[in-house]
Amino acid sequence: MDRKCAVVTGSVRGIGAASAVRLAKDGFNVVVNCRSRERMEDGMKTVSECMEHGVQAVCIPADVSDPEQCEALVRKAVEFAGRIDVLVNNASIIKWTAINKTSDEDFENIMRNDAYSVFYMTRSVVPVMKKQHSGKIINISSVGGMYGSPGSIAYGAAKGAVIAMTKTAAKELAISNITVNSIAPGGCRTDMGAEELKCEARVKEQLRYVTMRRLSEPKEIAGAVSFLASEDSSYITGHILEVSGGVLM
């Protein structure tokens, strides 16, 4: 295949699915990722949307909180496309609980899914990109990792870790012509945030801090992914691109 290839974790819905389809529109072959074989049907919907843009796409199940499955995902992606030019670390979960009601198990689960997964996937893809002497890694963090995430201390901690990993990896990998950047969305209308969106009072409180007074749509975050995946961002690395409608401006 002559086309470049993008791997997007957690891409069966929300920001991940929108990003996969946008990158397909931009001309990338796309590796869609779902957590397990039970989610393959949802993953194939994203694959179909990608292929409508005339590119090749495949869905590879892998739980990215597991390092061995991350290595397998990267290996299968290379078998599919021969290369990996863009990695979007998007897979994430959240659970709304007060600090004193957050269990050890919940904290560990969110850290593994939201932070460890970024480390595992980055570690797995770096040898491929170093061999190519090129690559772009895009980590989806959150304004919660920048300003705090009241009601989900684990999520805020994990996204803060993603931001720190972004900056560290950017400094380490620049010599190999690999850029590493992060997108920090604010509130976004996704399935993951559905529980929060049900609470009108919580949404109203959240929008008090948003200059544009609305939540984002997944396609708006995908637009930022598209830019960081393009050659227009070739001299940008270690940057945290806040796409939040002006939170705490």
Describe the structure.
- It is built from nine helices and seven strands, in the order βαβαβαβαβααβαααβ.
- It is an alpha/beta fold and 249 residues long.
- The chain has a single domain, classed as Rossmann fold, CATH 3.40.50.720.
- The chain has a seven-stranded parallel β-sheet, sandwiched between helices.
- Strand 2 (29-34), helix 2 (40-51) and strand 3 form a beta-alpha-beta unit.
- The mean pLDDT is 92.
In DSSP terms, counting alpha (H) and pi (I) runs of 4 or more, how many helices?
Answer: 9
Helix percentage range: 40-55%
CATH architecture label: 3-Layer(aba) Sandwich
Shape: globular
> Which CATH class applies here?
Alpha Beta
Structural class: alpha/beta
CATH fold type: Rossmann fold
H-E order: EHEHEHEHEHHEHHHE
Report, as a whole number of angstroms, the end-to-end distance. Answer: 45 Å
Low-confidence stretches: none
The major β-sheet equals: 7 strands, parallel
Number of strands: 7
Write the layout of secondary structure elements.
Layout: E1 5-8, H1 14-25, E2 29-34, H2 40-51, E3 57-61, H3 67-81, E4 86-89, H4 104-132, E5 135-140, H5 144-147, H6 153-173, E6 178-185, H7 194-197, H8 200-207, H9 218-229, E7 240-243
Parallel strand pairs: 1-2, 1-4, 2-3, 4-5, 5-6, 6-7
What are the main properties of this structure?
249 residues; alpha/beta; Rossmann fold; seven-stranded parallel beta sheet; 9 helices; globular
